[in-house]
Amino acid sequence: PTRIVAVANEKGGVGKTAMVINLGAALVKEGKTVLIVDMDPQHNATSGLGIEVADEMASVYDLISDEGEASIADALFSTKWPGLDVIASHPDLAGTEVELVDAEGREDRLKNAIQPLVGKYDVIILDTPPSLSLLTINVFSCADEVLVPCQTQPYSFNALTGLFDTIGEVQAEINPALDITGLIPTFFDRRLRVCRDILERLKTDERYKGLLFNTIIRSNITIAASAEAGKPVVFYRTSSFGAKDYTGLAREFLMAG
Amino acid sequence: PTRIVAVANEKGGVGKTAMVINLGAALVKEGKTVLIVDMDPQHNATSGLGIEVADEMASVYDLISDEGEASIADALFSTKWPGLDVIASHPDLAGTEVELVDAEGREDRLKNAIQPLVGKYDVIILDTPPSLSLLTINVFSCADEVLVPCQTQPYSFNALTGLFDTIGEVQAEINPALDITGLIPTFFDRRLRVCRDILERLKTDERYKGLLFNTIIRSNITIAASAEAGKPVVFYRTSSFGAKDYTGLAREFLMAG
Ligand SMILES: Nc1ncnc2c1ncn2[C@@H]1O[C@H](COP(=O)(O)OP(=O)(O)OP(=O)(O)O)[C@@H](O)[C@H]1O
Ligand SMILES: Nc1ncnc2c1ncn2[C@@H]1O[C@H](COP(=O)(O)OP(=O)(O)OP(=O)(O)O)[C@@H](O)[C@H]1O
Ligand SMILES: [Mg+2]
Ligand SMILES: [Mg+2]
Q: Is pLDDT at A144 greater than 90 in this prediction?
């Protein structure tokens, strides 16, 4: 069966897109087939995988909005790495919150749109924007699991409360099957007291300690350089810490399934 | 006259809140009076200045929503540092996009709300969430100037196009006086090729080079540590790179006025 996984945290810049791209690619290296759905209007997961976002191209916007014309096949792009496909995003996606405010089943648009693809991939990974708005709710409505990257910095730790509240509301009202599979520390640098402090808080806080993955994503310049190269780090430089950390995450994710 | 300055970039985690807090504090050290308005529902500028966000407290949400009851005096908090005040944010702010979708003058709510305070401070600095939604449009409607922190990473550089487009639309339709005062590179580490590459692109790109400030905010662990301590870096450790960079930014900002 296909595992449908959201990657979310309202805090900006915590490594959501990096996790979507690099976990996706690492799973492909482990022999899985992966579809990435980019639900962030900033479309960094789309461009980060080498797919150029043009004004007129088909995207997930077409699949969830009332004005959309394209089919799922139009919005589905293959990447250079066999087994790794993407449903592209587009800046127009930013208008959905207002466009769908009175629409029927506004939360379930994405779930209905990607239904035909469930079963065709081992894993579907959904990127989210840094907010808890309708786009993120759509993602939570169709996902079975959530992975939460938590930058080892105070603002990111503080953002977990709001995220867990929102997930609780979604479980109660829209998708009871939604489950938080894990919390993954990111941007960890063991030389920095701030990072060690936040990691310690994650390990001891009653709300989070049971969800904490063993894998820690370290702060790593190769991850940033790979994003500039438009390649996942496991295909960019396999010997780097970034590639090692994301390979470890892929394996722990598969064990947790 | 009061300078009203928005700090904005749709990309998450580029140092918007760090700039609001640290520029604000550095201006106070230069003898100015500063009001910070926190328009991000994540309320990091509010908590980052040591003000605890509680469920029932008054906030900017009360000032811009139809359901709000509090007055501006209720939502205005002084910080430990004389001359530095804050209009607090609150998680309820996240609901404004939907609540105000059909409301009269939805873009001008903040402008009208803070009108009584214009003239009472030398500078008013507005923090924004990582999106180009109604909250950010409200900020652009009441500001005269925009400072754009640009993390020296590819996704942040790519986000400038969308931001400049949105600012252009606001200038055409809502606030012709709005002006981009400057672009400030953040998280700069001269050892990293990615950072040097992006800085070079900022310096040579026709759209941005004329707006680029001389001040560069370096990647600096003291800035992160000061955020954990709930203090601006210029009051946390004056000898740090972070304090030096933000003091330089305050002086360049005052010269550009
Ligand atoms: N472990 C890491 N080490 C170093 N740099 C990283 C790491 N993970 C991501 N980055 C870089 O840091 C920046 C922020 O990461 P990213 O854009 O993935 O975060 P995000 O949570 O998706 O941001 P947003 O909230 O804007 O969607 C990017 O430039 C990315 O390349
Ligand atoms: N120059 C810097 N060097 C090191 N750390 C920094 C620097 N500036 C900010 N930080 C830290 O990096 C993280 C991201 O910065 P910040 O939260 O200010 O960005 P933001 O753009 O406001 O994010 P959001 O998009 O979520 O509002 C924070 O934990 C902050 O303390
Ligand atoms: Mg992202
Ligand atoms: Mg912020």
A: yes
Residue among A214, A207, A192 at smallest CA distance from A157: A207
Question: In terms of Cα–Cα distance, which of B162, B148, B138, B140 is closest to B16?
Answer: B148
Between CA A36 and CA A60 the distance in angstroms is 11
pLDDT digits 0-9 by tens, B221-257: 999 999 999 999 999 999 999 999 999 999 999 999 8
Please report residues of B whose CB lies closer than 8 A to that of A221: 192, 194
User: CA A187 to CA A199: how far, in whole Å?
Assistant: 11
Q: Please tell me the distance between residue A44's alpha carbon and the centre of ligand 2 in angstroms.
A: 19
pLDDT tier at B69 (50, 70, 90 boundaries)?
confident
Q: Could you tell me the CA-to-CA distances from A250 to A27, A48, A216, A217 in Å, in that order?
A: 6, 19, 12, 12
Question: What is the C-alpha separation between A73 and B137, in angstroms, rounded?
Answer: 35
List all residues of chain A from 215 to 234 with a beta carbon under 8 Å from chain B. 221, 224-225, 227-228
Q: What is the pLDDT of residues B109-148, one digit of tens each?
A: 999 999 999 999 999 999 999 999 999 999 999 999 999 9
Please answer yes or no on whether B11 and A42 come within 8 Å at the CB atom: yes
Angle at A12 between CA B5 and CA A187, to 5 degrees: 125
Coil, helix or strand for A169? helix
Cα nearest neighbour of B95 on chain A: A133
User: Please, what is the average pLDDT of chain B?
Assistant: 96
A48/B contact by beta carbon, under 8 A: yes
CA of A235 to the centre of ligand 1 (A): 17
Atom of ligand 1 at shortest range from CA of A221:
4
pLDDT at residue B68 in the model: 81
Asked if B192's CB is within 8 angstroms of A132's CB, the reply is no
